[in-house]
Design a protein that fits this description.
The protein has 459 residues and is an alpha+beta fold. Helices cover 39% and strands 20% of the residues. The strands form four sheets. Strands 3, 7, 11, 12, 13, 14, 15 and 16 form an eight-stranded mixed sheet that branches. The protein has a four-stranded antiparallel sheet with strand order 2-1-6-5, with no helix packed on it. Helix 6 packs across helix 11 and helix 9 packs antiparallel against helix 10. The protein is globular. This is Ubiquitin carboxyl-terminal hydrolase.
Length: 459
């Protein structure tokens, strides 16, 4: 066996051929070719990194001292924003803790362009659902019952009144004859239903219940909306005493919704023009009928004219025959119903309609012997037509979804089955010559308006 001659070990200064070195150490030939250059480049890179690090440290300290802001990642805002370079922003961003992505804010006040695609789809869907929801609020009119539909829509706008009837069903259901309350509750529960046939059946039942006590409403002729509302209020009040007697022995209580929300007392004071002697009496009302002044006027003016002193033919004990009579509010209701006398008889006993414009006020201040109150207009019943013998009733009312303070001013116009969206401003402008019955709701305690300062002066 022959031995190969021993190869001399390469020293650090000895240059080895590339092929032999590749065989001995397994290194690529390209590295060998560039070894000398790589060593020089490595030395330059180390020097460059040291210089960059020193420059970056000096620049950061300078910026930090200038802005006086600690680079703590937990701070959300800084008193003054540092103007860092792009590379420095990247370094800071890598050090900040990872935060959860917040959900986009859903608010109608934000422009549509700022909403995400998901939010735009949600808003579109909500508008479509609301549009379909509005269409369901109407009532069918098969045979001249627009006076019933408009009256019901105005009553359904009074949420507290509707709730008072529903919550006492266990009490008034004890009297089967109280059909007006039962049918009204059924109508309120199906107000948002799209079943026209069911609504038609409920309207017919309500009409029959009213006609049992007022037969003039049993036919299919057009009737007066004010007379119809008055009959409905009287029927609901009729069952109050009987229900209170029944519940007294059962540990329950009944409170008439009409008396709690719509009824008020008027004080009539008569004074003799000769001796000054007088008398006072109080009378219950569910609404006031106001005369329209010649040429029109405001609701406040018509109310003041109603409360103004008038002459009265009355024989006093002193022998005088002339007295003065003045009316005033003894109590104030939660909902004040005002009837505008648009129909009157001519000297030849012909019924005619008055088309004079009335300035519908959104806010109304009313004083009484106890205190004053501020009211807001929430619904109107309007008579559309040229004569008193023909025409059509429609209703305007606030959106049922709004709260006590509505900044959007959303209203609906109820024209039988057709329901359209409007605003209180448009109602006051468009119904000046057709408004017939006005519903004013009293402000709750703590609810302020620009008229409340006048109330404080009255009290």
């Amino acid at each position: 066996m022959s031995l190969l001659p021993a190869l001399p070990l390469p020293s650090r200064t000895t240059t080895i051929q590339p092929t032999l070195r590749y065989r001995l150490f397994g290194r690529p030939l390209t590295k060998i070719k560039k070894e000398g250059k790589d060593q020089e480049e490595d030395k330059e890179n180390v020097t460059t990194k040291k210089n960059k690090k020193a420059k970056k440290s000096r620049r950061w300290r300078c910026c930090k001292n200038r802005c006086c802001v600690s680079p703590a990642p937990q701070e959300e805002e800084t008193p003054e924003k540092c103007h860092l370079s792009a590379s420095q922003h990247e370094v800071v961003a890598t050090k900040r803790p990872v935060e959860k992505e917040e959900e986009p804010v859903k608010d109608d006040r934000f422009p549509q362009a700022l909403l995400t695609k998901k939010d735009k789809v949600a808003v579109t869907t909500q508008k479509k659902l609301r549009s379909d929801h509005i269409k369901c609020l109407g009532f069918p009119n098969p045979a001249q019952i627009c006076y019933i539909n408009s009256s019901l829509q105005s009553l359904l706008t009074l949420e507290d009144f509707v709730t008072a009837i529903s919550h006492q069903e266990q009490v008034w259901s004890l009297i089967p004859e109280a059909a007006v309350l039962r049918t009204f509750k059924n109508i309120s529960e199906h107000h948002f239903s799209s079943d026209a046939q069911e609504k038609l059946r409920l309207l017919a039942a309500f009409k029959r219940a009213v006609a049992l006590w007022a037969p003039e409403f049993g036919d299919h002729q057009q009737k007066d909306a004010h007379e119809f509302l008055t009959v409905v209020f009287d029927q609901i009040r009729y069952w109050g005493p009987q229900l209170q007697v029944l519940t007294a022995g059962m540990g329950m209580a009944y409170s008439c919704p009409v008396e709690d929300h719509l009824m008020f007392k008027m004080r009539n004071t008569r004074t003799c023009k000769s001796c000054g002697a007088g008398s006072t009496r109080e009378e219950d009302f569910t609404n006031l009928s106001l005369d329209l002044p010649a040429g029109g006027g405001t609701v406040e003016n018509m109310l003041d004219n109603y409360l103004m002193e008038t002459e009265l033919e009355y024989r006093c004990e002193c022998g005088a025959t002339k007295s003065g009579q003045r009316s005033s509010f003894a109590t104030l209701p939660r909902v004040l119903v005002l009837h505008l006398k648009r129909f009157r008889y001519t000297p030849t006993f012909q019924l005619e309609k008055i088309h004079d414009a009335v300035n519908l006020q959104r806010e109304l201040v009313v004083s009484s012997g106890q205190h004053g109150a501020c009211y807001s207009l929430v619904s109107t019943i309007n008579h559309i037509g040229a004569t008193a013998r023909s025409g059509h009733y429609i209703c305007d009312g606030v959106d049922p979804d709004v709260g006590p303070v509505d900044l959007t001013d959303r209203w609906f116009t109820y024209n039988d089955t057709v329901v359209t969206q409007t605003s209180g401003v448009n109602v006051c402008n468009q119904r000046q010559r057709s408004s017939y019955i006005l519903f004013y709701r009293r402000h709750v305690r703590g609810q302020q308006c620009h008229m409340c300062t006048a109330v404080k002066h009255i009290m």
